[in-house]
Queue: 2 jobs
Job 1
Amino acid sequence: MRVAAVGDIHIGADTDRRLALAFERLHEHADVLLLAGDLTKCGTPEEAANVVAELAGVTVPVVAVLGNHDHHAERPAEVASVLADAGVCVLEGDTTVVELESGRLGVAGVKGFGGGFGGSHATAFGEPEMKAFVEHTRAIGGHLAEALVRLAAEECDARVALLHYSPTPDTLVGEPLEIYPFLGSQLLAAAIDREGADLVLHGHAHAGTHEGTTPGGIPVRNVAMPVLGRAYCVFDLSRGRRR
Amino acid sequence: MSDRAHDDAALQHALFEVRDSLAVDGRVGELGLDVCVEREHVVVRGAISTEARRAQVEALVRDVLATHGIDLPVDNATHVPGAGEPSAFPEEL
């Protein structure tokens, strides 16, 4: 069960088609492609159409979540619609089960949001804006937990949590500490550790680190393209450890 | 505040505007680039999605610094991430 993944491809109005060339042979290396958000540069439907063009040579199922850049133009539904019309399964608090020859791969996807980690996590206290910030992440964490519960009932051979924001500071090492609260939240890890997954993928932290774990020990991988230094990476989930 | 401290503060405020402009100005449009001063050069680091945008970094930074009356050399230390195929062996989990 070979899973390709990448995030933060940031396709704008002026794509140089480098990814399209790499994606043409993706089916030789993987059975499915997961996209961890920030597919566009500014979140316009026109850029989403360019993303679709970059993916034209991909012949395996594609599952994606949106990232903060995909929300910048405040038209995420249109971005998601352009992608969905091209066959990309876009998740936000949703699940999908990909039927592969090697088994059933369950994916639960949310964009996520910030807040920070451990004792430094933001608190829903004070101004309405501050409370809204934390409650937004808390709600997203709830949606992720619900999605993982639904996946657990699907008898999948492997479950992947697909995010844009990080659930752990492990994969943020390399980023300035001051921006950790804007790169992810422990509330996301809480949902994952509570309901279980075999692998967590995220993007967003371009200067971060590839490998980490949730506090509960679930593998987390930062697949932002600047971190990978290549068009995508591949995971083999054939062992299919159920958590 | 001494003249030196005032100049340092003005430079820090200008660097804030540079970071912001690098993110929102369509010429580069890259959030999260690192901008700092080293040996009296403004140095920009980070990943940029295309060579065409990377080529716009120096001009954009100069434009923003000019609005603050600052004229320092600009070092474009950004890079375009590799887009090659993955390594031969996948990570087994």
Job 2
Amino acid sequence: MWIRKAPYPLMPELPLITHHEKLPSGMIELARINDPTAPEDLWLLVKQNESKLSLVKTYILELDTGAKYSCHQNDFPLEFLSWFPGALAEFQRPPAEGGLHAGAMTTPDLNVGGEMLCIQRALGVDQDRGGYAVINRSRCKRNRDPDTSFTPHEVCWASRFLYEGGLLQIIKELGQELVEGKI
Amino acid sequence: MVNLVIKDITGQAYELTGRSSAPRASAAKRYSGDAYSTFRFVATLPLAPDQWLQILRSTHQRLPNFHSSHPAEVHQAVAQSIVRGDLTLYQLPSLSISHGIQGKKGFGLSIIKGPNPHSATDLTPEAINSADAAQQLLDELGISSQAFLAYLTNENIVNSEQKQNPFAEALQLLASGELLAYKIPLPPKTPPAKAVEYVAAARADKPVPLAPESSAKPEQQKKTPSTLDARKGAPPKSLGDAEARLGSMKQEIADNGYKPKYSDEELLQQAQSGEVANERYHVRFMEAGHQWDRADSVKDENNLTGKLGREFSGETGTGPRYWSTTFDQIEDADSDPQLICQKLGIDYAPGTKYTMAIIDTEQAKSLTGCECVAATFNNISEFSNRELPAEFPKEFTDQVMTSDYQAVYKENYECARKQGFLVSDWSTDTDKFEEYLDTTELDQQEKDLLIQRMNMQSKIGNNQHYLGNGLTEDKIDKSPNSFGAVETHNFERTPTNLQKLKVAGAIKIIKL
């Protein structure tokens, strides 16, 4: 049997966002963007609790039983915005330029804003064009037992979404604003 | 007692010693790496498993029980011995002008730490008894004091910071023997090497008789005997040699008809062994046009802006962007795009232009960061266990990387697709997949396993159609085989620009 235990002390759960157009009081939408590689997906970047960031993915599925709205939330420290662009570039560096060994698919877990994050390569997304995932091992997915079936918070984006789609640019700009104290 | 010199295929020399032995050369630098890096490194050294076993026995350690004759088990045991300290590997400095300083009169100078000389060369260090003699040597070779100091600093041989007269100190070190100077002939002529105590593995230098060029009139040409057997296990010596060998297959096929280089049994064994991915020359086969970025309208042959990855949208937006295998696997197909397509199990599209890139992975690896495995259940599992142990440990892959589970995954994937939860045939959206699974009667454990299997697809690329035997389907009409070639799976963090590889001499593009 495959048992997964949370590797680090877990952060307290943040308030749940159940609908992207009805953010609970105190939360601020920083940006929203559609994913060109999965046009049904809308992503929101939401600041909450002063120092936290919720990455929210919403979509409507057209099922046989009718339209079904979904809203999925994965939480990170707000520092994600200033950390991620540089960390991604570093992760992409090949060995000849001082990067990780050939075949490395993940960074080590890094303390970012008090939470343990890592970046991973996602070769199979976007029809094998590839992308990247960010994992937060300081948070367990809701409704999972952190002692036996720990599932970290995770977002996964296609390279085409990050680069041509403009998501990375948005994150960079927000990161700059964070550094300048504007958010 | 163990103390021997090994040279890898690039000519880099190493000393291997036992626990209680020091290296012979003072300039030997101890190799240090984690268990996995050491294992991978040991696998590159040209010693046969039997030779490694002989070395291990000489350390008087109890050998582990080997479950098969797979070289990787022996390499693993050697790596563990090195990590434990029962064996120690030292890298010897390269006595070549690339690690030396150019001088005049056809010589350069290479400096290493003394007093014990280099243990893998027949060159002898220059006899220097005094600082004046050291200065004379530099004058003779026309090497200035600044250039000499800069060289010593760059090579980390001395630290000239915070020294009052670092040049004088360096001359003293040469006089005392703490530094040794070797005159290296120019243009670079490889210094004669001491014979190693063990010979390289038999695969390395077997000559391949290529089909002779013929200037005779076609009707007078004699058929050349098949060279396929001679090509087995005989890697090309260079990218140019690889290209020539491909070209020479044309005559062979014309004379003898297409014959597969390897039988189905041999291909199955190669896919399972994992050794195919360690071959030096790999190929990527793609539709022409991917050599340039799709935004690049110029398409200059001397400026390949394309990448060795799957960045581009095909016209239909479906299907993989390239197929990969090794040169050894594809050689028998000449440079015939139809044969290659059929060998790789691809439907050949007449009128489509194809191209093939031959990659020297020794040159390319550090530029691409790419690791390659034959795409079998076992190899993909081992890679995942190693590189993503938190996400895909052995207890997980043991359950999901089987034909039976693959069928379960495929069935659930197709149901999710059919019911509209997955919006495309290549979706890896675990949130949507979980919503589908919540409509089934599977228990949470079964759902978690399927969700994580999809997570594996998103990270590794083993989709719902993945067969796990590491082989392509042979679609060549006259071939007796069911299997075409061992298919390799490439793991790289970002696609690399073709031009960068071309400039580094790591790639050759063959127009088909």
